[in-house]
């Protein structure tokens, strides 16, 4: 066991506190990782505000890169000293999805069996089973994905959650391919990554939609060919206007509210694909749409969980593309901050001032 510093949400809505935590030595199948960087994600704020579960206290942080410091018995996928990006999809190999050869949908993912605790022994709930706003964290070894150690940790660590969700919404769930038209509604971290994913996949027309010109500018930098400020008028008409009057082949809703989902539904061309990647509020409902429109327009209405990624397949590949200059992960790192600055980063994120603030440990 060792002690570490961690950013912990003690009670609903209260500012996170820097406290001493206890990190057990890794048991069978577990690893302790010396965290180098960890991005600040909306999900961390949602945990703090009680929007996910009420299992306080939470050890926040889950978009992390670091070095494996120690491993427990039976760990073979990583070794001490490996540079890893942490994931929240350590696949089981035994569930229905895994057995049919679709581990990216694994229904029974693993986390560490032991608990990290506060100094007084109170067990912590790590955000998304990771908890990486800390110098050290304990995870299941399957949550460690080895990538090229020459890569910049602050950039590639973001593949651990939001950036992977967006890239995967385009590449995996939307199955965007060369020559297609893609529209992305909402250009925060996830939406901006969806734009980068569409560009990487060879889409020829990439339309970014947001309320803020600043985000539309970021989107252009990541590959958007056209932008629409949604405060200027009807988003569906604007997307149709940029696609020969038809709509886009793939429309990605990176906001996740009924209004944007409905826009995405109607902004598709016939037989087009809608991908929902923004996390909806628990009380949000599917908007009322004539069933005949669902039938008559054809295509697919999909949801993208974590970009339908398989970390062992996608992280090393995307890091290689980053190293080759074909995927600009640096563009997502708006600022590097200290562990004490997490609360300030929540404010900036809430106001839309950043794609990502990244804590450097
Ligand atoms: Zn499984
Ligand atoms: Zn996240």
Describe this structure in words.
There is one protein chain. The protein is of the alpha/beta class and 361 residues long. It has two domains: 192 residues, Medium-chain alcohol dehydrogenases, catalytic domain (Quinone Oxidoreductase, Chain A, domain 1); 143 residues, NAD(P)-binding Rossmann-like Domain (Rossmann fold, 3-Layer(aba) Sandwich), CATH 3.40.50. Helix content is 26%, strand content 26%. α4 packs parallel to α5. The structure holds zinc ion (ZN) (2 copies). The site of one zinc ion has 6 residues, from loops.
Strand and helix map with partners:
Elements lengths: L1 E8 L7 E7 L6 E10 L2 H7 L9 E2 L3 E9 L11 E4 L9 H4 L17 E2 L6 E2 L9 E5 L3 E3 L6 H4 L5 H12 L7 E5 L3 H12 L4 E6 L2 H9 L4 E4 L5 H7 L6 E6 L4 H9 L1 E9 L14 H7 L2 E4 L7 H13 L11 E3 L4 H10 L5 E4 L1
Parallel strand pairs: 4-8, 11-12, 11-14, 12-13, 14-15, 15-16, 17-18
Antiparallel strand pairs: 1-2, 1-4, 2-7, 3-5, 3-9, 3-18, 5-6, 6-10
The chain binds zinc ion (2 copies).
Give the quaternary arrangement of the chains: single chain
Order of helices and strands: EEEHEEEHEEEEHHEHEHEHEHEHEHEHE
Overall outline: globular
Structural category is alpha/beta
Keywords:
361 residues, Rossmann fold, alpha/beta, 26% helix, 6-stranded parallel β-sheet, binds zinc ion, 2 domains, 7-stranded mixed β-sheet, Quinone Oxidoreductase, Chain A, domain 1
Concise summary:
The protein is built from eleven helices and 18 strands.
């Amino acid at each position: 066991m060792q002690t570490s510093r961690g950013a912990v949400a003690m009670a609903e809505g209260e500012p996170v506190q820097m406290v001493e935590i206890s990190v057990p030595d890794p048991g069978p199948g577990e690893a302790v990782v010396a965290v180098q960087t960890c991005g600040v994600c909306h999900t961390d704020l949602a945990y703090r505000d009680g929007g996910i579960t009420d299992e306080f206290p939470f050890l926040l942080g889950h978009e992390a890169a670091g070095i494996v410091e120690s491993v427990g018995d039976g760990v073979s996928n990583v070794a001490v000293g490996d540079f890893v990006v942490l994931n929240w999809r350590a696949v089981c190999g035994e569930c229905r999805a895994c057995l049919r050869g679709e581990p990216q949908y694994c229904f029974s993912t693993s986390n560490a069996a032991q608990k990290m605790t506060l100094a007084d022994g109170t067990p912590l709930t790590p955000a998304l089973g990771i908890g990486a706003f800390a110098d050290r964290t304990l995870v299941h070894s399957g949550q460690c994905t080895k990538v090229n150690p020459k890569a910049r940790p602050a950039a590639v660590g973001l593949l651990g959650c939001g950036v992977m969700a967006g890239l995967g919404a385009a590449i995996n769930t939307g199955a965007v391919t060369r020559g297609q038209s893609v529209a992305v509604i909402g250009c925060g971290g996830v939406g901006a990554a969806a734009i980068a994913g569409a560009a990487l996949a060879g889409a020829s027309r990439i339309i970014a939609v947001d309320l803020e010109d600043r985000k539309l500018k970021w989107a252009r930098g990541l590959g958007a060919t056209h932008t629409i400020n949604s405060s200027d008028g009807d988003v569906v008409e604007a997307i149709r206007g940029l696609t020969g009057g038809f709509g886009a082949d793939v429309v990605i809703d990176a906001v996740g509210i009924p209004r944007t989902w409905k826009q995405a539904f109607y902004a598709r061309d016939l037989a087009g694909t809608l991908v929902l990647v923004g996390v909806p509020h628990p009380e949000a409902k599917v908007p009322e749409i004539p069933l005949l429109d669902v039938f008559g327009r054809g295509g697919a209405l999909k949801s993208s969980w974590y970009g339908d990624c398989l970390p062992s397949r996608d992280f090393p590949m995307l890091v290689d593309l980053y190293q080759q200059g074909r995927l600009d992960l640096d563009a997502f790192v708006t600022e590097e901050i200290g562990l004490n600055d997490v609360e300030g980063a929540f404010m900036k994120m809430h106001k839309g001032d950043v794609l990502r603030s990244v804590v450097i440990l």
